Amino acid sequence: MSKPDNIRGHSGGVSRRHVLGASAAGMAFAATRVYANPAGDAPTTPDKAITELQDWSQALGDGVDAKPYGVPSKYEAGVVRRNVEWLTASPQSSVNFTPLHDLEGIITPNGLCFERHHGGVAEINPAKFRFMINGLVEKPMVFTIDDLKRFPRENRIFFLECAANSGMEWRGAQLNGCQFTHGMIHNVMYTGVSLKRVLEEAGLKTNAKWVMPEGGDSAAMNRSIPLFKALDDCMLAYAMNGEALRPEQGYPLRLVVPGWEGNMWVKWIRRIEVGDMPWHAREETSKYTDLMENGNARRFTWEMDAKSVITNPSPQAPIKHKKGFTVLSGVAWSGRGKVSRVDVTIDGGKNWHTARLDGPSFDKSMHRFYYEFDWNGEPLLLQSRAIDSTGYVQPTKDELRQVRGYNSIYHNNAIQTWHVKANGEVENVEIS
Ligand code: MTE
Ligand code: CO
């Protein structure tokens, strides 16, 4: 079903009866009529939003250049990253969350990309920035940002998900909002040079097996990455969504490690060492390992498994209209390829429906899905389940715990449940 032009928000939408019930000819008619309220009846009182002249039509507005760098409307002031203060001891070693419930499509605006820093944001002067390659290479090299911009460029859209995304939900439903349960993810277009191209410039020695990116921030974050990945699809990126990286995202240069856990995407990258063994850095021993039920820890769990979440309705985005035509929307992604299908249930898994995927579908990128339905006004249990191009199916929490136990933090890709109450409010619950 295509949406008629005159469907509006909950303040005065077209009723589903008029839209879905109509024949093809009737649809055309519905699209040209204006309904005053969701029941579709003729308006009985004049609508002041129409009959009265508004401020904005009575005086000239701001001229060009009032805002040399544009910002959103003041009415969108609530669309912001948010943190959960009790999660971390300091804002320098902390995380905030992307407002997924306020976003459309698949691209995260730069100013809303969640931030995860271990030692605060490094404010790097690009004139003093240097990037070095050393270790098992024929020719150790140092580059400026301008040097890197003379390599052939690539533009690629990828999601970055922190391994800890949904980590607070391992033992039960905890945080009330998809921003907090799933917001350690962003999806942007990167511009940069392929890491393979730059490594080739330095010349890999025959015993080269691993690379170690290292950050120039106070945390000097470093990880071991196997050479096969470094030569596959990794990038050194200096731009996101068409402009220079934001300081929060690693300005002037960050490593892009498509489909793999966010921790490996070293920001403010100053060095890559090439070696023949992993370094067993702090971030891959004491952190970013998964404690299993038997006390053993899984290590080097790099790939992000397929996952999805319904962003609307959700606790921060309740249903504000009454029963009737309802748009359910969400996002899905997989570190192994594309999302080939998303299933949605509104009755806690009794019946599953294939969601409608809309928008571009790229490998290791976010996908947008929709399921439009006629809400009968009764409570709902909403879930979504992603299936990726390898055939992998997103598990329930119970299924995940059978394999992983209760001690994990990282790599929680389980199915999320939202309970919609009759009054439209939504809460985080667990049912399977
Ligand atoms: N790189 C450096 N140098 N320092 C850091 O603290 N945090 C890592 C990674 N790269 C980090 C880093 C973690 S854990 C994640 S999830 C991602 O960056 C977060 O990227 P973002 O801030 O762009 O969302
Ligand atoms: Co992280």
Automatic annotation (TrEMBL):
Residues 118-278 form the Oxidoreductase molybdopterin-binding domain. Its cofactor is Mo-molybdopterin. Keywords: Metal-binding, Molybdenum, Oxidoreductase. CDD domains: bact_SoxC_Moco. Pfam families: Mo-co_dimer (PF03404), Oxidored_molyb (PF00174). Residues 299-417 form the Moybdenum cofactor oxidoreductase dimerisation domain. InterPro entries: Ig_E-set (IPR014756), MoCF_OxRdtse_dimer (IPR005066), Mopterin_OxRdtase_euk (IPR008335), OxRdtase_Mopterin-bd_dom (IPR000572), OxRdtase_Mopterin-bd_sf (IPR036374), Sulfite_DH_SoxC (IPR030835), TAT_signal (IPR006311). PROSITE patterns: TAT (PS51318). This is Sulfane dehydrogenase subunit SoxC. It comes from Filomicrobium insigne.
